[in-house]
Design the sequence.
C-alpha cells in the first residue's frame, strides 16, 4: 500500500488506496491481429539502445528530407529530435493516403441532434477542404509559417480541418477548449500573440444550440485590453448560410468562413516543407501559478510519437473505426483523434455533444451505427455512464476489440464495469498515463504483450524509462510499492519542446528539481519531473496517485487551484480564497471553495452565487466549485498561511489532525459544523 508519509501531497492523500489486482489477459483473437506482438520490443527500446531506437518511430512518417541527427542535446533540456529532417504534418495526415485510400472515410462526424445526419468525410474531401481553407488562411488572413493563430472551436469537423490547414502552412495553431470562457481564450490569444481568431457561431451541447460567437467578442475585448489586437475573426457557421447565433458580426473584423471560402474554390496549397523541430501547435495547460503554460509541440518528434503510439498502443488497423470521445480542445484529442489516427490513415470519429444526450445509450448507439471497434474515453465519462445507464451497452450491437482509459486514476470497480459491460468481456483495455506536456502516452500496457491490471497504468512504454524519486532526490527502491515523485529518465520524441516564450519556467518547472548538473548537456543529467506521485509494484507496473503540486484534476483535466482562487478574488467583496480538492463520484475530483470577506460585507447565498458565476466566466464551467463556503476566517498558521490541508480534510469529511498549533484553532470546529450541515 502507498505510504502517505513519503510524499506530502494534496491529492495522493485522498487518492483511493486499493490492493494490487489480478492480471487480466488479452484473448488469442486479439493477439492474432495485433500490430505489436514482439516481446523483444522492450529490449529494442532499452536505455542502452537509446536514442537510436526511435528511428523506428520516425520511419512511420514520410519525410521530404531525411534527418541526420536523431537527438541533439546541445541546448539541454530543450531536446531536438530528428534534426536536419523536413516534413509536413498535413501531408502526412492527408496527401500520403490519397493514392490508395482517397475514398476511405477520414472523419465520421456525429452531430448531437438526432435529426441531423452523420457526415462521412473521405480523405479526398478532407484534402480539398484543407487545401481551400489553407489558401484562405494564407491569402485572406495573411498567415505564414511560424505565425500563431488561436482557435476556439467546438467538436465539429471544421476543427481538424482548421488545424490541418494551419499545419499545411507551417502556422502554429493554438486551440482553446470550446467550453472555456472568452476571458480564458483572451489570455491565450495574448500569450501566443495571435492576430487571428478562428471560431464558430454556435454548437450543440446537451440539446441546446449555444451562442459561441459571443465568446469571441469577450475574448477580443479582453485581449486588446491586455495588449494584443486581433485583426480578423474567422467564423465558421454551424449551418453554413444560416444565422445560428444572435451575436452580431463586427464589420471589417468578423468574416463568415463559408462566404470568404467561395473565392478559394478549387485552390490547392503545396504543403510547406518544415524543419522537424519547428513547432506544430501550442496547447495551454494549468500550472501552479495563475498563468497557463503554452506547451509547444514539434512537428517531427510529436507526429512520429503519436503515430507510433496510435499504432502500437491503440492498435489501429486500416479497417478499424476508431472513436476517442475526448474533446479536440485537450491534448488527448490533438494526439488521438486528429494527428495519430489520421497519420495512420484510419477512420476517426468526431462527436459534437455530450455522451449522455439524450440518454446514456448514446455512445453505444453511435458505436453500433458506425461499427466502432476501438473506443477511447476517460474515467469520468465511464463513471457517469455506469451511474446513469448501467444496462444501456447491452441494448446495442457493437463489438469493441480495444478500449482506452485516460486522464485520471480509474477505480478497479469502474475498470471492471468498463471491461465487462462496455467491453462485453472481450475488449482489451489500456490505461494510458500521460500529460499535455508529454505529447503521447508514457505508461500503459502493450495490448497484446503485457497483461492488464485494473487500477494500474502499467509499465513504461518501450523507450520510456520512469524513475521514482523521494523528496531528497534519492531513488525510491524499484518495485517497492512506496510512493514518490515519478520522473522520466530519458527524453522521447513526443515531449514538448518548451513553454511558449518562457524557457526559464520550462526548466524550473520540469527539470530543475532533480537535475544532476545544470550545466550538463547530457540527457542523463536531466530527469523530467511529471508532477505526479506514483508507486511501482514489484512487477514494474505503475499506479498513479495524483498531482503533487497545486493542481487538481477535474474530470481528467488539470485546473490550477491558484487560477480558480485568482478568479474568485476578482469579486470585490472577497478578501481571501482557498480551493481544495474534494472527491466526487463522477468527476473524480471537484474544487471546493472557501472564501473570507472584506470587512463590512456579509455572507449571503447571492454572493456565493456571484463568486461561482465569476469563476465560470473567467475560466469556464469546468472550474465551477462544488460549494462556495463563506467563512468568517480561514484556518491559519501563526505565520498567516492558509491551511489548505485542514480545509481539504473538512471538505472530504476526514480527520483534520492536530490543529492546536494554528493561530485560530477554534475556527476549525466552526467550519466543520458549517460543512457538516
Ligand atoms: C495529468 C495530466 C493525459 C491526457 C489528458 C490529461 C493525470 C492522466 C492518467 C491515468 C492516472 C492520469 C495525471 C497527469 N492522468 N492520465 N491513466 N491514470 N492519472 O492531460 O490535463 O495534462 O493532465 O492527468 O495526474 O499528470 P492533462
Sequence:
Amino acid at each position: 500500500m502507498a505510504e502517505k508519509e513519503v510524499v506530502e501531497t494534496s491529492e495522493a492523500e485522498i487518492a483511493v488506496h486499493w490492493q494490487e489486482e489480478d492480471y487480466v489477459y488479452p484473448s488469442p483473437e486479439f493477439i492474432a491481429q495485433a500490430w505489436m506482438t514482439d516481446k523483444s520490443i522492450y529490449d529494442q527500446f532499452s536505455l542502452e539502445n537509446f536514442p537510436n531506437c526511435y528511428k523506428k518511430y520516425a520511419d512511420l512518417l514520410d519525410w521530404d528530407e531525411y534527418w541526420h541527427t536523431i537527438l541533439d542535446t546541445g541546448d539541454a533540456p530543450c531536446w531536438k529530435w530528428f534534426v536536419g529532417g523536413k516534413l509536413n504534418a498535413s501531408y502526412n495526415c492527408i496527401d500520403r493516403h490519397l493514392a490508395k485510400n482517397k475514398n476511405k472515410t477520414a472523419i465520421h462526424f456525429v452531430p448531437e441532434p438526432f435529426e441531423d445526419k452523420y457526415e462521412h468525410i473521405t480523405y479526398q474531401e478532407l484534402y480539398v477542404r484543407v487545401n481551400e481553407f489553407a489558401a484562405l488562411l494564407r491569402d485572406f488572413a495573411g498567415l505564414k509559417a511560424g505565425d500563431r493563430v488561436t482557435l476556439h472551436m467546438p467538436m465539429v469537423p471544421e476543427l481538424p480541418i482548421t488545424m490541418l490547414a494551419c499545419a499545411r502552412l507551417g502556422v502554429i495553431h493554438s486551440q482553446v477548449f470550446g467550453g472555456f470562457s472568452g476571458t480564458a481564450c483572451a489570455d491565450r490569444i495574448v500569450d501566443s500573440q495571435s492576430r487571428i481568431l478562428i471560431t464558430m457561431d454556435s454548437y450543440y451541447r446537451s440539446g441546446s444550440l449555444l451562442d459561441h460567437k459571443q465568446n469571441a467578442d469577450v475574448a477580443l475585448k479582453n485581449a486588446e485590453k491586455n495588449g494584443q489586437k486581433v485583426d480578423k475573426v474567422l467564423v465558421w457557421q454551424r449551418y453554413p448560410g444560416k444565422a445560428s447565433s444572435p451575436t452580431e458580426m463586427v464589420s471589417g473584423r468578423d468574416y463568415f468562413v463559408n462566404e470568404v471560402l467561395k473565392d478559394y474554390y478549387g485552390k490547392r496549397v503545396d504543403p510547406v516543407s518544415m524543419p522537424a523541430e519547428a513547432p506544430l501547435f501550442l496547447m495551454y495547460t494549468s500550472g501552479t501559478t495563475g498563468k497557463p503554460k503554452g506547451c509547444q509541440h514539434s512537428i517531427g518528434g510529436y507526429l512520429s510519437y503519436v503515430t507510433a503510439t496510435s499504432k502500437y498502443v491503440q492498435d489501429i488497423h486500416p479497417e478499424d473505426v476508431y472513436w476517442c470521445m475526448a474533446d479536440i480542445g485537450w491534448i488527448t484529442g490533438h494526439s488521438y483523434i486528429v494527428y495519430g489516427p489520421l497519420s495512420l490513415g484510419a477512420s476517426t470519429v468526431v462527436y459534437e455533444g455530450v455522451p449522455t444526450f439524450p440518454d446514456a445509450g448514446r455512445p453505444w448507439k453511435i458505436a453500433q451505427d458506425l461499427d466502432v471497434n476501438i473506443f477511447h474515453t476517460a474515467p469520468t465519462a465511464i463513471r457517469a455512464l455506469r451511474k446513469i445507464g448501467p444496462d444501456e451497452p447491452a441494448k446495442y450491437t457493437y463489438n469493441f476489440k480495444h478500449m482506452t482509459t485516460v486522464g485520471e486514476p480509474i477505480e478497479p470497480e469502474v475498470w471492471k464495469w468498463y471491461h465487462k459491460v462496455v467491453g462485453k468481456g472481450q475488449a482489451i483495455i489500456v490505461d494510458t498515463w500521460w500529460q499535455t506536456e508529454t505529447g503521447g502516452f508514457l505508461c500503459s500496457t502493450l495490448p497484446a504483450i503485457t497483461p492488464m491490471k485494473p487500477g494500474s497504468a502499467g509499465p513504461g512504454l518501450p523507450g520510456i524509462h520512469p524513475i521514482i524519486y523521494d523528496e531528497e532526490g534519492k531513488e525510491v527502491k524499484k518495485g517497492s510499492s512506496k510512493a514518490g515523485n515519478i520522473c522520466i529518465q530519458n527524453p522521447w520524441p513526443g515531449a514538448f519542446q518548451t513553454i511558449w516564450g518562457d524557457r526559464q519556467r520550462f526548466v524550473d518547472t520540469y527539470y530543475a528539481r532533480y537535475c544532476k548538473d545544470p550545466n550538463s548537456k547530457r540527457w542523463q543529467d536531466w530527469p523530467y519531473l511529471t508532477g505526479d506521485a506514483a508507486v511501482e509494484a514489484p512487477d514494474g507496473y505503475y499506479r498513479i496517485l495524483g498531482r503533487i503540486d497545486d493542481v487538481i484534476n477535474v474530470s481528467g483535466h488539470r485546473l490550477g487551484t491558484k487560477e480558480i482562487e485568482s478568479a474568485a478574488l476578482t469579486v470585490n467583496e472577497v478578501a481571501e480564497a482557498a480551493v481544495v480538492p474534494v472527491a466526487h463520484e463522477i468527476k473524480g475530483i471537484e474544487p471546493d471553495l472557501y472564501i473570507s470577506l472584506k470587512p463590512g460585507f456579509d455572507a449571503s447565498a447571492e454572493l456565493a452565487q456571484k463568486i461561482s458565476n465569476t469563476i465560470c466566466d473567467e475560466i469556464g464551467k469546468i472550474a465551477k466549485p462544488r460549494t462556495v463556503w463563506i467563512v468568517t476566517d480561514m484556518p491559519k498558521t501563526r505565520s498567516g498561511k492558509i491551511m489548505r490541508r485542514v480545509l481539504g480534510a473538512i471538505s472530504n469529511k476526514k480527520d483534520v489532525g492536530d490543529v492546536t498549533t494554528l493561530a485560530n484553532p477554534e475556527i476549525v470546529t466552526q467550519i466543520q459544523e458549517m460543512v457538516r450541515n
About this structure: The radius of gyration is 24 Å. The chain has 20 helices and 30 strands. The longest strand covers residues 574-584.
